[in-house]
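hiii so um. not sure if this is the right channel but i have a protein structure encoded as tokens and i wanna go backwards to a sequence. like what aa goes where. can anyone help
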């Protein structure tokens, strides 16, 4: 029995990790959600699953934070945005990429546009655009117009480590065009009761506003048009029973998205405002620019949080 067990372990080591019902091969080494391939949609660090790929080194390395501004008013080829099919892993060629195909994200009308379209089943198919460099603490400032012209439509600006489940976000819902919602999560522990709305704004689907997150080792601050409406202090997230700070502190990627919340499960659809009225479209989230200022001011390094 011992010999059989050793043989099984040796076989697994030789064949590599399991990606769904298959094992990734050398010509398609990167795993994402049970599928293997060799392009950016599978090998980029914000998507690739190192433990399920041919080897952990199959996934592309993570480019760390440097200060930058992505100006989406400039034409394609300026280095602000590229389709993920065209991205080869060098962040200097594209600060942001579409995360999947087919892509509903494009540069048009002097902005980055993320569009939600209706599918044959009546549900919406949206878009995610994600930064190619990770950030661990810093200031993120984006000029955005929400795409939520109907109930059910959700637009987001998110800083998230998808593998750990740490997140800081701004979210817009079509049920309320006059505010933006803020929240944060630690290790995928979803606590919607922590959501805080901004004060009243001019229609977020018509006007561009400047949304900013100031993320530091000891606090997170949310601002709109330079006005702070929320601060969370790390000290206040202490969980005495578990002896841990429930505070997002892991290196993460910045992203924009638009999606159909109205066709989701009841809790999500109630929050988003029920089904989408497609006659109120088009549903286009517009982003003029985003600036990232690293906590370490341009040093390509990461920060080890205090214990």
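sure thing!! here u go:
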């Amino acid at each position: 029995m011992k010999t059989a067990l050793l043989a099984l372990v040796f076989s697994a080591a030789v064949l590599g990790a399991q990606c769904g019902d298959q094992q990734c091969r050398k010509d398609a080494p990167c795993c994402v959600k049970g599928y293997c391939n060799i392009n950016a949609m599978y090998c980029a660090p914000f998507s690739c699953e190192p433990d399920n790929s041919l080897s952990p080194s199959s996934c592309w390395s993570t480019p760390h934070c440097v200060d930058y501004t992505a100006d989406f008013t400039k034409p394609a080829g300026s280095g602000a945005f590229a389709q993920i099919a065209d991205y080869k892993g060098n962040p200097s060629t594209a600060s942001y990429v579409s995360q999947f195909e087919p892509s509903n994200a494009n540069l048009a009308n002097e902005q980055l546009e993320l569009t939600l379209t209706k599918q044959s089943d009546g549900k919406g198919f949206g878009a995610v655009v994600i930064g190619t460099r990770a950030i661990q603490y810093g200031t993120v400032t984006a000029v955005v117009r929400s795409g939520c012209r109907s109930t059910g439509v959700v637009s987001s600006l998110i800083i998230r480590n998808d593998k750990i489940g740490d997140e800081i976000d701004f979210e817009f819902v079509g049920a309320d065009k006059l505010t933006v919602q803020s929240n944060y999560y630690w290790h995928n522990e979803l606590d919607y009761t922590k959501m805080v709305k901004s004060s009243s704004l001019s229609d977020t689907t018509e006007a561009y506003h400047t949304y900013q997150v100031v993320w530091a080792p000891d606090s997170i601050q949310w601002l709109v048009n330079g006005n702070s409406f929320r601060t969370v202090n790390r000290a206040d997230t202490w969980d005495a029973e578990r002896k841990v700070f429930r505070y997002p502190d892991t290196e993460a990627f910045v992203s924009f998205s638009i999606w159909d919340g109205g066709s989701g499960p009841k809790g999500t659809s109630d929050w988003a405002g029920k089904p989408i009225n497609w006659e109120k479209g088009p549903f286009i989230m517009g982003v003029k620019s985003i600036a990232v200022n690293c906590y370490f001011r341009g040093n390509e390094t990461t920060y080890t949080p205090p214990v």
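oh and Helices lie at 2-15, 40-43, 266-272.
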